[in-house]
Amino acid sequence: PTANFGTSFGTPGTNQADENRLFELRYDGDTDRSWQPSFRLYHGNYRYSGHYVYAGSPNSRDVAQADWTGTEFRLAYTGLNRHKLLLGVESQWNQQLLQRYFEPTPYNAILDTNNPSRTYSVYLQDEWRIHPDWLLNVGVRHDKHNQFSGVTSPRLALIWQTTNRLTLRAVTGS
To answer: First and final CA of the chain: distance in angstroms?
Structure first.
């Protein structure tokens, strides 16, 4: 058997804990009408803790913690024959993005960072059913991160539903 990250297998004190949680509140509007609003609000967190015991080397600890909250609003329009137009806006606030890696005895911090951030996005997409088995998806999305300049990303996809159990996709975008 092998052990994690170069530690010795079965050595007492080596362990990891990895947890992820997500809470989402969502509303999807009436699908019988041409205009279909959708809204969601979410909150999540992630926790990782690793304790590593090495033979002949300093022991180490690894910690990662993240907390985020976000929202999204989408408006779909299906009033055009064989088209589904989507317009959406998103926002996410990363309250905590913490990473630490250190040797506890003697204390030696190798990595210690926390970079909270915010992102904002807007997108527009057209799903065009060009044939009962074929879908053409064309879209554009603009993302803005508070620590970087904005990025606009186009997307183009051709999707073929060959059978009820097989779908083939050709996708390009950035």
So the answer is: 41
pTM attached to this predicted model? 0.78
Eight-class DSSP state of 9: T
Instruction: Say how many C-beta atoms besides its own lie within 10 A of residue 89's C-beta.
Output: 13
| Distance from chain centroid for Cα 2 | 31
Contact 110, 101 (CB under 8 A): yes
List, for residues 46-89, the tens digit of each pLDDT value. Answer: 999 999 988 777 899 999 999 999 999 999 999 999 999 999 99
- Name residues whose C-beta falls within 8 Å of residue 150's C-beta, 6 or more positions apart in sequence: 142, 143, 144
| Structure tokens, 166 | 């097989």
Tell me the CA distances in angstroms from 4 to 1, 17, 56, 60, 146, one per residue in order. Answer: 10, 13, 16, 12, 36
pLDDT by residue (tens digit) across 110-136? 999 999 999 999 999 999 999 999 999
Which residues in 7-45 are b (16+ Cβ under 10 Å) and which e?
beeeeeebeeeeeeeeeeeeeeeeeeeeebeeeeeeeeb
Q: Which residues pair with 94 in a beta bridge?
A: 68, 117
